[in-house]
Amino acid sequence: MEPDEPPLTEDDATPANPDNEYGWEKLYAERVAMAYGRRYPMKVRIARFENCYGPEGTWTGGREKAPAAICRKLAKAEDSGTIEVWGDDTVMRVFTYVDDLVDGIYALMQSALEGPVNLGSDERVTVADLVRTVIEVSGKRLKVKYVPGPVGVHARNFSKARIKSLGWEAKVSLREGIERTYAWIEKQVKALQGV
How many CA atoms lie within 13 A of 160 on its CB side? Predict the structure, then answer.
């Protein structure tokens, strides 16, 4: 998607055309659950997360989300140094703090809604916004060098009308979530370095 496109609803995922196997895996798992729900007396509720992040999450090893990767890079960086970030600074994403997602899952499970429900923040940011936020939180003075690397689609924008119909909205801003996440990741980095 491009940043100015209208938000996609849950129904817009079909006909599916994910850009990689990970997307197909998620949609296939949804189809299996819904098929089971049609055959047996089970209500199927599917929460489609928008980029979960927070303390206690994966922060190293290549499977971490962008907020954790940027926090790790900054925690390891020397003040006045340079960090490398994949792609350019224009890719847009929504990052949703883990506590908000847990509250959203709870609201969904207590509701009468069935099927897929988009669950995420309304705060859309560019990679440059994310990096700038982490730098501010870290208190370091760093330069950023954008380098070639995987970035996925240019933008994603999902409607949250279904989950909002339950009165749920994300409460934790990116800044607040990064403050909590950076502090935790910085502690992990220092422990590995023996500091």
Answer: 22
CB neighbour list of residue 122: distance below 8 Å, 6 or more residues apart:
94, 160, 169, 170
Question: Tens of pLDDT along 62-95?
Answer: 889 999 999 999 999 999 999 999 888 888 999 9
Tell me: the pLDDT tens digits for 88-141?
Answer: 888 899 999 999 999 999 999 999 999 999 999 999 999 999 999 999 999 999
Judge whether 142 and 77 are in contact, CB under 8 Å: yes
Spatial distance between the Cα atoms of 54 and 108, rounded to a whole number of angstroms: 21
Q: Domain locations in the chain?
A: 10-193
Question: Which tokens hold the place of 69?
Answer: 């990767």
Neighbouring residues of 129: CB distance < 8 A, sequence distance ≥ 6: 174
What residues are annotated to the active site?
Answer: 22
Homologous superfamily, domain 10-193: UDP-galactose 4-epimerase, domain 1 (3.90.25.10)
Torsion over CA: 165, 16, 49, 133 (sign): negative
